[in-house]
Design goal:
Layout (H helix, E strand, L loop, with lengths): L2 H15 L1 E3 L8 E8 L4 E8 L1 H4 L5 E12 L4 E5 L17 E6 L11 E10 L9 E8 L3
Parallel strand pairs: 1-4, 6-8
Antiparallel strand pairs: 2-3, 4-5, 4-7, 5-6, 7-8
Amino acid sequence: MPKFLVLLFLLFSTVVKSQTEITWYTLDDVTFTDKYSEEAQGYYYYPNFGGSVKALEGKRVLLKGYMLVIDPTKNIYILSRYPYASCFFCGSGGPESIVELQLKPDHPKFKMDQIVTISGILELNYDDIYQCNYILGDAEVHKK
């Protein structure tokens, strides 16, 4: 086999292996403590992430879910375990059932409840009440 093809194969193998496919069950490895926030003058759930989730922090992961188009003019999108009518904001599931997306600027337009697989760097938010507990940074639609 020519050296070029071997090099190309090795490069492709490294790129493919650098992403970990996770499921919503993976993100269930979290418990919450209800604490009072002086800043917001209210009670909020603060996460206690389990070991399996902490091991993924800072790594590129793939996650499939429902796209929630919150405010496209401000690039605010959420990936949800459930469709909009049943999402965390509407009463089903907990905070672990949504992921905030920090999408790259060249992302496509999305429809509400469009099923997509997103690739991004998993960030764990321990205490910022204005962001989701799970965030995918440098996020983009995964193309197979």
